[in-house]
Amino acid sequence: MSLNQQIKSDIKDAMRAKDTVKRDTLRNIQAAVKQIEVDERRDVTDADLETIMMKYLKQREDAKTQFADAGRDDLVEKEDAEIAIIKAYLPEPMDDAELENVLKDVIASTGAESMKDMGKVMGAAKGAIGSRADGGRINIMVKKLLL
Description:
By secondary structure, this protein is an all-alpha fold. The protein is built from seven helices and no strands.
């Protein structure tokens, strides 16, 4: 079963269970999928869906930070619930040691030697790592390895 089909099935299950947080979170993901399907007139792959979910996860984490700064604990809890739901569909994130090993291989394969080669490394790294680490973590680790 593809990730998209799994989400559709889980929306139905959440509706039956009257789990409004899960239902609404997954519907928001489905809305982003539909937007791409209509705008670009193509089917969304699992890799595309993971990218959409990573973007949505980042938005939720940013909103959580803003709500925490404003002292809105009720909204922080809502964002935490949505973040947990999204993370359940994403692959297990890489730990720092695994990320460093993959990035060392990418740096070696691209022949990068200095910060001038950062763009080349980042492009290849995103392809090799996918949604198992966010761009910020990759960026920090690449800078550390290239200096």
